[in-house]
Amino acid sequence: MTKFSELNLNPKVLKAIEEAGYDTPTPIQAGAIPPALEGRDVLGIAQTGTGKTASFTLPMITLLARGRARARMPRSLVLCPTRELAAQVAENFDIYAKNVKLTKALLIGGVSFKEQDALIDKGVDVLIATPGRLLDHFERGKLLLTGVQVMVVDEADRMLDMGFIPDIERIFSLTPFTRQTLFFSATMAPEIERITNTFLSAPARIEVARQATASETITQGVVMFKASRRDREGTEKRALLRKLIELEGDACSNAIIFCNRKSDVDIVAKSLKKYGFDAAPIHGDLDQSQRMKTLDGFREGTLRFLVASDVAARGLDVPAVSHVFNFDVPSHAEDYVHRIGRTGRAGRKGKAMMICGPKDEKNFDAIEKLIQKEIPRVENPLGHVETEATTDASDEKKENKSRRSRGGRGRSKSSDKPQETKVEAQEQVQTEAPKETSKRDDDQKPEQDRSRNRRNDRGGRNDRGGRDSNVVGMGDHMPSFIALSFDERRAG
Ligand code: AMP
């Protein structure tokens, strides 16, 4: 097997690699470093977790170790789709270039232009940037790209997803034709193929195996979940997530929980927190300093649960993540591979659990087809009907019914709608935590105490143990409060 020492890297870079604790290059490194050092273009088809960042930083540092940067004319450029990824690439440069005198600047949103301008004015060897921010600087006349000798495009497929391809093409056209290009993508979509055909010249193509096929250290599982009622889906799904986490016990030292929508990232994080889980959200709408703080906390182990969207977590390099929970089935099968690849890194063991609802089955099938493996089905640990959440659900059902009947029996369906929506909205915003707590409390309180809450819950859980104690669902049993006259109910 090749050793780093055989790769013609600068001795000072070799020393830094050794100090980082690595001696054997990963396949993408062994494949990409030699042609990159020869000055050739490289097309790396690899995803995060394969060691791809070092496969371009190590030859770049070696190539740039000689020579000096000129004011406002960076000598190399690394483009990343997200701020987090850009920050991670910058960290890699810090690790591997620590024995070499190189200057770098990070151009990402959320950091002041003034500081970044000052660095660029002095001249930098390596400029690491997100495409939009780089073009902002360029358009303000603060930056010249005509001195770029090496240009890296990292995670091109993600750039495509995020609509950055026109920016990338523009940036390519602003750099010298003679530049060397190192281009990385996890997949080769037709649009990516077109870009590489246009801007790369006779590249060395290195493709490494999909992580999904390599990551035998990850135990996977899926719970096929169906809510007892549509308007209880969110609540029951979050209860299931908590149960899945709890079942892992101490083995779950930390975890990333993925949601498809940013709004769900917030709701799930808030809900977990209310239940006493040490959780925080991360997605693109949060401000930069908050995202950095959350990520640092997760990396350092002071934050146990990171609730994330795909884009925010993409490329997130935390070596020891014990669990990944897919709160939602990702709509792109490849994202599943990326998501679960956050655990089981570098030969460690990891566990990835997913919740799949009836609407997700098509996407789920696509995942199993992609990974060519059946994901083991795990029984819903909360069972089907008599879960805590569904007990609450039946109460809410009663609540809905009570509200409807308050409006009179003869009301049209459409006039009921706003009421239902309101219940759903309440549930989303407040999350369900306080309910469970109060429910437990309630169950231990004497009947007269419970009656105090009756006004708030109206025919809800406080009827338990009372006249309606047998009522758990719609069935053909009519809860007695429905039979009460309007005035009586109001008085109750
Ligand atoms: P990346 O694919 O660049 O996100 O890297 C994934 C992880 O692999 C990072 O934690 C790196 O520090 C680590 N890594 C990089 N190169 C090596 C190597 N040659 N041997 C072992 N781990 C490595």
Automatic annotation (TrEMBL):
Q: Where, by residue number, is the motif Q motif? A: 2-30
**Domain DEAD-box RNA helicase Q as annotated: residue spans:** 2-30
Q: Which SMART domains does this entry report, sorted A to Z?
A: DEXDc, HELICc
Which Gene Ontology biological process is one annotated for this entry? response to temperature stimulus
Occurrences of domain Helicase ATP-binding (ranges): 33-206
Q: Which reaction does it catalyse?
A: ATP + H2O = ADP + phosphate + H(+)
Q: Where is the composition biased (Basic and acidic residues)?
A: 413-425, 433-467
Q: Where is the composition biased (Basic residues)?
A: 400-412
A GO molecular-function term, please?
Answer: hydrolase activity
| Keywords associated with the record | ATP-binding, Cytoplasm, Helicase, Hydrolase, Nucleotide-binding
Residue span, Helicase C-terminal domain: 239-386
* Gene3D superfamilies xref list: P-loop containing nucleotide triphosphate hydrolases (3.40.50.300)
One GO cellular component term = cytosol
> Where is the region Disordered?
378-492
| Enzyme Commission number(s) of this protein | 3.6.4.13
Q: Which family does it belong to?
A: Belongs to the DEAD box helicase family.
* Name assigned to this protein: DEAD-box ATP-dependent RNA helicase RhpA
State the species of origin.
Marivita geojedonensis
